[in-house]
Write a structure and sequence with these properties.
By secondary structure, the protein is an all-alpha fold. It has one domain. It contains eleven helices and no strands. Helix 3 runs parallel beside helix 6 and helix 3 runs antiparallel to helix 7. It is globular and about 60 Å long.
Amino acid sequence: MFNITKFIVSDLIKNWILVLYSVFLLLATLGFFLLEGQGDKAILGVLNLTLLLVPMITVIFSTIYYYNMYEFMVLLLAQPLKRSRILASIFLGLGIAFGLAVGLGLGLPLWILHPTPVALMLVGVALLLTVIFIGLALLVAVWVRDKARGMGFALFLWVYFVLIFDGLVLLMMYNFSDYPIGKVVLFITFLNPVDLGRIMVLMQTEAAALMGYSGAIFRQFFSEWWGPIASLLIMLVWALVPAAISFRMFRVKDL
Protein backbone atom coordinates (compact mmCIF):
# COMPACT_ATOMS: atom_id res chain seq x y z
CA MET A 1 0.00 0.00 0.00
CA PHE A 2 2.86 2.38 0.87
CA ASN A 3 4.60 1.68 -2.45
CA ILE A 4 1.40 2.20 -4.46
CA THR A 5 0.65 5.45 -2.62
CA LYS A 6 4.23 6.64 -3.17
CA PHE A 7 3.94 5.89 -6.89
CA ILE A 8 0.62 7.76 -7.17
CA VAL A 9 1.92 10.80 -5.29
CA SER A 10 5.08 10.95 -7.44
CA ASP A 11 2.89 10.68 -10.53
CA LEU A 12 0.49 13.38 -9.38
CA ILE A 13 3.03 15.99 -8.32
CA LYS A 14 4.41 15.92 -11.86
CA ASN A 15 0.98 16.57 -13.34
CA TRP A 16 0.83 20.03 -14.94
CA ILE A 17 -2.79 20.55 -13.86
CA LEU A 18 -1.88 20.23 -10.18
CA VAL A 19 1.13 22.50 -10.69
CA LEU A 20 -1.03 25.14 -12.37
CA TYR A 21 -3.65 24.73 -9.64
CA SER A 22 -1.10 25.43 -6.92
CA VAL A 23 0.46 28.35 -8.83
CA PHE A 24 -2.96 29.88 -9.49
CA LEU A 25 -3.90 29.69 -5.80
CA LEU A 26 -0.58 31.29 -4.90
CA LEU A 27 -0.89 34.16 -7.39
CA ALA A 28 -4.58 34.74 -6.59
CA THR A 29 -3.90 34.89 -2.85
CA LEU A 30 -1.03 37.33 -3.35
CA GLY A 31 -3.20 39.38 -5.69
CA PHE A 32 -6.04 39.71 -3.18
CA PHE A 33 -3.69 40.95 -0.48
CA LEU A 34 -1.96 43.39 -2.84
CA LEU A 35 -5.24 44.79 -4.17
CA GLU A 36 -7.28 44.92 -0.97
CA GLY A 37 -4.57 46.00 1.44
CA GLN A 38 -6.74 45.01 4.42
CA GLY A 39 -6.44 41.54 5.91
CA ASP A 40 -10.14 40.75 6.45
CA LYS A 41 -11.20 41.93 3.00
CA ALA A 42 -8.44 39.92 1.36
CA ILE A 43 -9.42 36.86 3.41
CA LEU A 44 -13.02 37.16 2.20
CA GLY A 45 -11.84 37.31 -1.40
CA VAL A 46 -9.58 34.29 -0.93
CA LEU A 47 -12.43 32.47 0.83
CA ASN A 48 -14.85 32.99 -2.06
CA LEU A 49 -12.24 31.83 -4.56
CA THR A 50 -11.36 28.81 -2.44
CA LEU A 51 -14.96 27.67 -2.01
CA LEU A 52 -15.50 27.91 -5.75
CA LEU A 53 -12.22 26.53 -7.08
CA VAL A 54 -11.13 23.84 -4.60
CA PRO A 55 -14.28 21.66 -4.87
CA MET A 56 -14.43 22.02 -8.66
CA ILE A 57 -10.80 21.12 -9.40
CA THR A 58 -10.72 18.38 -6.78
CA VAL A 59 -13.88 16.53 -7.82
CA ILE A 60 -13.23 16.79 -11.58
CA PHE A 61 -9.55 15.85 -11.45
CA SER A 62 -10.08 13.00 -8.97
CA THR A 63 -12.89 11.50 -11.06
CA ILE A 64 -10.82 11.65 -14.25
CA TYR A 65 -7.78 10.23 -12.46
CA TYR A 66 -9.74 7.21 -11.22
CA TYR A 67 -11.01 6.41 -14.71
CA ASN A 68 -7.53 6.85 -16.18
CA MET A 69 -6.14 4.48 -13.52
CA TYR A 70 -8.63 1.73 -14.43
CA GLU A 71 -6.20 -0.52 -16.35
CA PHE A 72 -3.56 -0.04 -13.67
CA MET A 73 -6.08 -1.08 -11.01
CA VAL A 74 -7.02 -4.18 -13.00
CA LEU A 75 -3.32 -5.08 -13.12
CA LEU A 76 -3.00 -4.59 -9.37
CA LEU A 77 -6.08 -6.72 -8.74
CA ALA A 78 -4.30 -9.60 -10.46
CA GLN A 79 -1.74 -9.44 -7.65
CA PRO A 80 -2.33 -10.76 -4.09
CA LEU A 81 -3.54 -7.36 -2.90
CA LYS A 82 -6.72 -6.44 -1.07
CA ARG A 83 -9.11 -4.24 -2.99
CA SER A 84 -9.50 -1.89 -0.04
CA ARG A 85 -5.74 -1.24 -0.02
CA ILE A 86 -5.73 -0.37 -3.72
CA LEU A 87 -8.53 2.18 -3.35
CA ALA A 88 -7.03 3.48 -0.12
CA SER A 89 -3.76 4.09 -1.96
CA ILE A 90 -5.58 6.13 -4.62
CA PHE A 91 -7.47 8.08 -1.94
CA LEU A 92 -4.31 8.79 0.07
CA GLY A 93 -2.31 9.64 -3.04
CA LEU A 94 -4.88 12.16 -4.22
CA GLY A 95 -5.23 13.57 -0.70
CA ILE A 96 -1.48 14.04 -0.23
CA ALA A 97 -0.95 15.57 -3.68
CA PHE A 98 -3.88 17.99 -3.39
CA GLY A 99 -2.92 18.74 0.20
CA LEU A 100 0.56 19.77 -0.95
CA ALA A 101 -0.96 21.93 -3.69
CA VAL A 102 -3.28 23.69 -1.24
CA GLY A 103 -0.52 24.02 1.36
CA LEU A 104 1.91 25.64 -1.07
CA GLY A 105 -0.62 27.67 -3.05
CA LEU A 106 -2.82 28.85 -0.20
CA GLY A 107 -1.17 28.08 3.12
CA LEU A 108 2.28 29.47 2.33
CA PRO A 109 1.22 33.00 1.24
CA LEU A 110 -1.33 33.24 4.08
CA TRP A 111 1.31 32.22 6.59
CA ILE A 112 3.67 34.90 5.25
CA LEU A 113 1.17 37.73 4.67
CA HIS A 114 -1.56 37.15 7.27
CA PRO A 115 -0.54 34.66 10.01
CA THR A 116 -3.79 34.79 12.01
CA PRO A 117 -6.26 32.19 13.34
CA VAL A 118 -8.78 33.02 10.59
CA ALA A 119 -6.15 32.34 7.93
CA LEU A 120 -5.32 29.04 9.61
CA MET A 121 -9.01 28.12 9.66
CA LEU A 122 -9.32 29.02 5.98
CA VAL A 123 -6.48 26.65 5.09
CA GLY A 124 -8.02 23.96 7.30
CA VAL A 125 -11.40 24.35 5.58
CA ALA A 126 -9.71 24.14 2.16
CA LEU A 127 -7.95 20.91 3.16
CA LEU A 128 -11.16 19.40 4.56
CA LEU A 129 -13.08 20.29 1.39
CA THR A 130 -10.28 18.69 -0.62
CA VAL A 131 -10.67 15.40 1.26
CA ILE A 132 -14.48 15.60 1.09
CA PHE A 133 -14.61 16.07 -2.66
CA ILE A 134 -11.97 13.39 -3.27
CA GLY A 135 -14.26 11.02 -1.40
CA LEU A 136 -17.29 12.15 -3.41
CA ALA A 137 -15.34 11.79 -6.66
CA LEU A 138 -14.29 8.23 -5.81
CA LEU A 139 -17.87 7.41 -4.81
CA VAL A 140 -19.16 8.56 -8.20
CA ALA A 141 -16.35 6.88 -10.14
CA VAL A 142 -16.77 3.54 -8.36
CA TRP A 143 -20.55 3.68 -8.72
CA VAL A 144 -20.66 4.71 -12.41
CA ARG A 145 -18.54 2.67 -14.81
CA ASP A 146 -19.06 4.93 -17.84
CA LYS A 147 -16.57 7.82 -17.81
CA ALA A 148 -18.88 10.37 -19.50
CA ARG A 149 -21.74 9.69 -17.09
CA GLY A 150 -19.36 9.72 -14.16
CA MET A 151 -18.01 13.12 -15.15
CA GLY A 152 -21.57 14.38 -15.51
CA PHE A 153 -22.45 13.25 -11.99
CA ALA A 154 -19.24 14.76 -10.59
CA LEU A 155 -19.98 18.13 -12.21
CA PHE A 156 -23.55 17.98 -10.92
CA LEU A 157 -22.27 17.45 -7.36
CA TRP A 158 -20.08 20.54 -7.65
CA VAL A 159 -22.91 22.64 -9.09
CA TYR A 160 -25.31 21.40 -6.42
CA PHE A 161 -23.08 22.09 -3.41
CA VAL A 162 -21.74 25.43 -4.70
CA LEU A 163 -24.78 26.93 -6.47
CA ILE A 164 -28.07 25.00 -6.31
CA PHE A 165 -28.05 24.40 -2.56
CA ASP A 166 -27.64 28.10 -1.78
CA GLY A 167 -30.47 28.94 -4.19
CA LEU A 168 -32.79 26.48 -2.45
CA VAL A 169 -31.90 27.90 0.98
CA LEU A 170 -32.50 31.48 -0.21
CA LEU A 171 -35.85 30.43 -1.69
CA MET A 172 -36.85 28.84 1.61
CA MET A 173 -35.76 31.92 3.59
CA TYR A 174 -37.75 34.18 1.24
CA ASN A 175 -40.94 32.10 1.48
CA PHE A 176 -40.71 31.74 5.26
CA SER A 177 -39.29 35.17 6.05
CA ASP A 178 -42.14 35.86 8.48
CA TYR A 179 -41.13 32.93 10.68
CA PRO A 180 -38.11 32.51 13.01
CA ILE A 181 -36.20 30.00 10.90
CA GLY A 182 -32.69 31.03 11.92
CA LYS A 183 -32.01 27.78 13.79
CA VAL A 184 -33.47 25.77 10.92
CA VAL A 185 -31.07 27.49 8.51
CA LEU A 186 -28.21 26.65 10.90
CA PHE A 187 -29.03 22.94 10.81
CA ILE A 188 -29.61 23.01 7.05
CA THR A 189 -26.10 24.42 6.67
CA PHE A 190 -24.77 21.15 8.06
CA LEU A 191 -26.07 19.43 4.91
CA ASN A 192 -23.57 21.30 2.74
CA PRO A 193 -19.85 21.17 3.61
CA VAL A 194 -19.11 24.16 1.37
CA ASP A 195 -21.59 26.40 3.22
CA LEU A 196 -20.44 25.05 6.57
CA GLY A 197 -16.84 25.88 5.70
CA ARG A 198 -17.88 29.37 4.61
CA ILE A 199 -19.71 30.02 7.89
CA MET A 200 -16.81 28.66 9.97
CA VAL A 201 -14.44 31.20 8.39
CA LEU A 202 -16.89 34.12 8.24
CA MET A 203 -17.64 33.82 11.96
CA GLN A 204 -13.98 34.67 12.62
CA THR A 205 -14.11 37.93 10.63
CA GLU A 206 -15.84 41.29 10.97
CA ALA A 207 -18.25 40.32 8.20
CA ALA A 208 -20.17 38.22 10.76
CA ALA A 209 -21.72 41.45 12.11
CA LEU A 210 -23.38 42.10 8.72
CA MET A 211 -25.29 38.81 8.54
CA GLY A 212 -28.41 39.96 10.39
CA TYR A 213 -30.62 37.66 12.48
CA SER A 214 -29.23 34.45 11.04
CA GLY A 215 -25.74 35.76 11.64
CA ALA A 216 -26.58 36.35 15.31
CA ILE A 217 -27.66 32.71 15.66
CA PHE A 218 -24.50 31.54 13.90
CA ARG A 219 -22.35 33.74 16.17
CA GLN A 220 -24.11 32.35 19.24
CA PHE A 221 -23.51 28.79 18.03
CA PHE A 222 -19.83 29.35 17.23
CA SER A 223 -19.19 31.35 20.40
CA GLU A 224 -19.87 28.26 22.50
CA TRP A 225 -16.95 25.90 23.00
CA TRP A 226 -18.82 23.01 21.43
CA GLY A 227 -19.88 24.91 18.28
CA PRO A 228 -16.56 24.78 16.38
CA ILE A 229 -15.98 21.20 17.60
CA ALA A 230 -19.40 20.11 16.32
CA SER A 231 -18.75 21.81 12.98
CA LEU A 232 -15.36 20.11 12.66
CA LEU A 233 -16.91 16.71 13.46
CA ILE A 234 -19.60 17.27 10.82
CA MET A 235 -16.94 18.15 8.24
CA LEU A 236 -15.05 14.97 9.20
CA VAL A 237 -18.25 12.95 8.74
CA TRP A 238 -18.60 14.48 5.27
CA ALA A 239 -15.01 13.43 4.58
CA LEU A 240 -15.31 9.86 5.87
CA VAL A 241 -18.80 8.70 4.87
CA PRO A 242 -18.48 9.02 1.04
CA ALA A 243 -15.04 7.39 1.20
CA ALA A 244 -16.36 4.55 3.37
CA ILE A 245 -19.26 3.92 0.98
CA SER A 246 -16.93 3.92 -2.03
CA PHE A 247 -14.64 1.42 -0.27
CA ARG A 248 -17.58 -0.88 0.43
CA MET A 249 -18.80 -0.66 -3.19
CA PHE A 250 -15.30 -1.21 -4.58
CA ARG A 251 -14.84 -4.43 -2.60
CA VAL A 252 -17.89 -6.07 -4.23
CA LYS A 253 -17.86 -4.35 -7.61
CA ASP A 254 -17.21 -6.44 -10.72
CA LEU A 255 -14.45 -4.60 -12.56
